[in-house]
Amino acid sequence: AQNDLKGTKWNWVGTQMRDTRTTVENPFRYNLDFTTDTNVVMKADCNTANGTYRVAGRNIRFSPFAMTRMACPPGSLGSQFAQSVQSARRFRLVGNNSLVLEIASGATLSFVRALSPSVGLGLEGTKWNWLGTQTGTEKIVAAMPIKYSLDFKTATAVTVRADCNTGSGSYKLE
């Protein structure tokens, strides 16, 4: 059976529970890297962990992780993230750039695809989701990053999605 997670890396963007939603302020600090068809590396803020996982259809189980035990800064979601991942039971891919893990409590963890180390320095063939913007006076966080994207179709053509609006254009790397 094919494992669709093998060789992919995902940044955590939020958790949806029955009545509340947690939005991750800095998704790059929390990720899952499915390095092989059985090994996974987790980054949970200031800690990293190694473990194994097993996929059967859309069911997923993680073994207990071996994790560093650094004291992360106040406000860290590292422990919450690690515990939630450990209790994942099912997964689904939404297109090529979104992963949803369903955990035992019924909550869902949402992820966007991280840049794969196998991608070259060019942008061709990559798709990027907007996570937010920091200006001199305010921080804007995209509540649903999957709704905002740049899709570099070729070496010169890009497609833009901004919520319900789409557009296309050309670009040049200099």
Walk me through this protein's architecture:
- About 3% of the residues have low confidence.
- It is globular, with a radius of gyration of 17 Å.
- It contains one helix and 16 strands.
Mean pLDDT: 88
Low-pLDDT runs of 5+ residues are 117-121
* Beta-strand residue percentage: over 45%
What's the alpha carbon Rg, rounded to whole Å? 17 Å
Please count the helical segments.
1
Summary, kept brief:
This protein is mostly beta strands.
Topology:
Blueprint: E1 8-16, E2 21-23, E3 30-34, E4 39-44, E5 47-56, E6 59-62, E7 66-67, H1 78-86, E8 88-94, E9 98-103, E10 108-113, E11 127-129, E12 132-134, E13 139-141, E14 148-152, E15 157-162, E16 165-170
Antiparallel strand pairs: 1-2, 1-3, 1-10, 3-4, 4-5, 5-6, 5-7, 8-9, 9-10, 11-14, 12-13, 14-15, 15-16
Provide the descriptors you would attach to this structure in a database record:
174 residues, mainly beta, ten-stranded antiparallel beta sheet, four-stranded antiparallel beta sheet, 5% helix, globular
